[in-house]
Amino acid sequence: MNLSFFDQFSSPSILGIPLILIATTFPALLLPSLDNRWITNRLSTLQLWSINLITKQLMIPLNKKGHKWALILTSLMMFLLLINLLGLLPYTFTPTTQLSMNLALAFPLWLATLLTGLRNQPSASLGHLLPEGTPTPLIPALILIETTSLLIRPLALGVRLTANLTAGHLLIQLISTATVVLFSTMPMVPILTLLVLFLLTILEVAVAMIQAYVFVLLLSLYLQENI
Predict the structure, then answer these.
(1) What's the rounded Cα separation, in Å, for the pair 152 and 173?
(2) pLDDT, tens digit, for every residue of 41-83?
(3) What sections of 121-152 are H helices per DSSP?
(4) pLDDT per residue over 93-152, tens digit each?
């Protein structure tokens, strides 16, 4: 029983071929393709409105030099948002519950922001490792601490996204399993658990959206430090 709870986080496969690539590319097929018509349907209008809103929110903490990252950050936000929300549907697989995938997204983008800062303003980027006015005896320890906190950023991004989504999926499965088991013995108790499950599902929808936004927002803040 304990192992079956974690089966939902294993990558599905057919004939030994993992289907995680299909799971990551499928959300892009749900987005309607844009055309040159002035009048479009409601779905295209909603898509444009959401993309404009996301881009505006992500570009607020950035100056004009960081606006060239708008396409990458907005695309990543839409990608994570769709995958997280689709993962809440029954009999689906959520790729963002895999730590390896989240680290593969976080590490290259964090490294790109770091290299951007070292190329454009090396003195200011290295200056973050040593706060101004630090006593001389504390300089080696603070440099070591700040360097560790800098290098642990991509790991924190990946673990945060993985842990929040995994915990939510496990809670939903545990409560739904308890509802099915108790339905035959205590009919009144499953009614309460169904209510809890409904509220938890709404909470998980909010968590899926918030975690996608936090992931990309932290990347934009890291970028702002280096530009």
Answers:
(1) 31
(2) 777 778 888 888 888 888 887 888 888 888 899 989 988 998 8
(3) 122-127, 139-151
(4) 788 888 888 999 999 999 999 898 888 887 777 777 777 777 778 778 888 888 888 889
> Is 0.90 surpassed by the pTM of this model?
no
* Rounded Cα distance, 55 and 44, in Å: 16
SS (H, E, C) 168-226: HHHHHHHHHHHHHHHHCCCCHHHHHHHHHHHHHHHHHHHHHHHHHHHHHHHHHHHHHHC
pLDDT band at 1 (very low <50, low <70, confident <90, very high): very low
Question: Dihedrals φ, ψ of 178, to 5°?
Answer: -65, -35
Helix (H, G, I), strand (E, B) or coil at 7: helix
- As given in the structure block, the two tokens for residue 94 are 């959520």
Name the 3-class secondary structure at 13. Answer: strand
What is the C-alpha separation between 208 and 36, in angstroms, rounded?
A: 33
Element at 74 (helix H, strand E): helix 70-86
